[in-house]
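From the thread on structure requests for the teaching lab: each student submitted one protein with a one-line request. Submission from student K.M.:

"Model Membrane protein TolA from Lysobacter arseniciresistens ZS79, tokens only."
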Amino acid sequence: MRETRADTRDALLLAIGLHVLLFALMFAGLWWTRSAQPSSAAGSPVEATLVDADALSESMREVLSERPEPVAEPVPEPLPEPVEDDAAPLPQPIPEPVPEDAPTPPQQQAQDFIPVPDTTDQDEVVDTPTPTPSDEQKLQEEKRRQAQVDLTEKKRQEEAERKRRLAAEAKEREEKLAEIRRKRAAANREAELAAQKLKQIADARAAREAESAASSAGASAPAGNGGTDTGLQARYAAALTEAILAKWTRPETVPLGARCTLVIRQLPGGEVMSAEVSSPCAYDEMGRRSIEAAVLKAQPLPYAGFEKVFARTLTLNFVAQDR
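Reply posted by the TA:
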């Protein structure tokens, strides 16, 4: 739409009219403000001029001297107080206004602009009560009591764990000891069986040797007629060995079945004068000393029934075996 000159003229006239109306409103407002000022309750101010009495004329002095005395105004009588059932409270005096002390000095600089708003919910912060000193003390006491309870429970658990561990170790130790005892008992049984077998073998060998010696010498020399009873001699040697074994503890260094020659000097009745180890002997020094001591402990040696084959000095072939 194209603007014409008529439109421009109308717009100009409207603008002028608007400005005239604004000026008129401003003038009316100023006039209204002046006329609206309240009048003083004391009336118009009184103007006075101080004049020296000596400078007045005679006529003015006479007029002033003839001025009548002012009449005193009558004092109004007090009104009677109204009688009521409930006396109204007396009006309290209005306290004088006291200028308030500023709690904080006025801010000298403007507050910094915070580009990012605070996301903290102020309502929730205000609703959360601030703990008082007594509440804080109770809270600390509760925390200490809970810590003591936790410490006591921890100690109890540690003590229970220690007892359980000690019980497990004691049980394991008992099991190991029982296993060792079982193995040792089995070894002792095996050793006893082996010793019994060796004894049986030795007895059988001695019996065979005695039988063979008796059969070979039976025809040449009859027993008790200037000859030697080899069977009785073999039984005598076996009796001596049994007596010595009863008093001997075989050292671990002497193996089973080891042989050693003993030379024993004795008196009739079996009292031993001396016992010495002779060659050949497969025992070590400890085994030799132990077998000599066993011969001395075994006295009196077997004598009754073996008088025919008794000898003051005899040589015994000893075989190591457990009793």
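TA comment: The CA atoms of residues 191 and 322 lie 8 Å apart. DSSP finds six helices and three strands in the chain.
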